[in-house]
Design goal:
With 270 residues, the protein is an all-alpha fold. Helix content is 74%, strand content 0%.
Length: 270
């Protein structure tokens, strides 16, 4: 009788309870409960702090009957178009600018001061100038949002390109890689994690700038809806618009995280 080694299959990894997600949900529920308590006990006037039920009713009213010349879906579509168009244009411009700053002394000398000049400026500071230059149409709104997004994308691209390991660069040069191939095949892939981080920061800045961009001559958009409601102290509609913007920003954040996990699975791993 021959000895046989008993193969014991490895234990399945235990699934950890998503405590972070549970804490997040509990925090949101706690805030809503406190909000309901404050509205129910009359801690503030309903004009300034409507109950969550009133906000939900306003949201449903905007979705079905519309508000400020459009339905909620039309306002969401207009705002999404502006933010996504600004993000696409800014990515097409910001990533090459970041590559030039990181790889060229001439590019750094010319472009870096311009980015550092734009970065601390609040959108409301240059909004009137953009309206004078570009008019009150869609290009001016997209430009305002894009300028708010530009600096995070450029800076993150520069940081990512500089993070490329020296061994990778030397290996590529040893195989005869040209400067263009070095940037395209080594530096740009190494910069992708930082670029995605910059996109997430830029989207946050874009949603923040959206209300300012829709202040002037807009007929649709969540920012326009909020401003129209604020003029007549329709606080429940103001809060409903704010919550929709927050929900859209959260969905875009999770979408970028999902893209990272799908196409950049090595991020966050040792």
């Amino acid at each position: 009788m021959t000895d046989q080694t008993l193969q014991i299959p490895p234990a399945a990894p235990r699934r950890q309870m998503p405590w972070t997600s549970l804490l997040g949900v509990a925090t949101i529920l706690g805030v809503v409960a406190l909000w309901s308590l404050a509205a129910g006990l009359g801690w503030a006037s309903p004009v300034f702090l409507p109950a969550p039920g009133r906000v939900w009713a306003a949201l449903m009213r905007a979705a079905t009957d519309g508000y400020a010349n459009a339905t909620l879906l039309q306002h969401v579509g207009a705002s999404l178009w502006r933010v996504m168009a600004a993000l696409g244009c800014t990515m097409a411009l910001g990533v090459p600018i970041g590559l030039l700053i990181a790889t060229s002394r001439v590019g750094r000398g010319i472009l870096d001061p311009l980015i550092e000049f734009i970065r601390p400026l609040p959108p409301l500071a240059y909004l009137p100038l953009i309206i004078i230059w570009c008019g009150i149409g869609e290009p001016s709104k997209i430009l305002v949002i894009g300028l708010a997004m530009l600096a995070p994308i450029v800076i993150s691209t520069v940081s990512g390109v500089r993070a490329a390991s020296e061994s990778q660069i030397r290996a590529a040069r040893a195989f005869g890689a040209t400067r263009g191939q070095l940037v395209r095949e080594v530096m740009l892939p190494a910069a992708l994690p930082s670029i995605f981080t910059g996109m997430r920061i830029a989207l946050g800045a874009g949603w923040t700038t959206l209300v300012a961009a829709e202040l002037v001559a807009a007929t649709r958009g969540l920012g326009y809806m909020i401003q129209s409601a604020a003029q007549f102290l329709v606080t429940d509609m103001v809060i409903a618009g704010i919550l929709v913007i927050s929900a859209l920003a959260t969905v875009s954040e999770f979408a970028l995280r999902a893209i990272e996990r799908r196409y950049l699975p090595w991020i966050g791993r040792a």
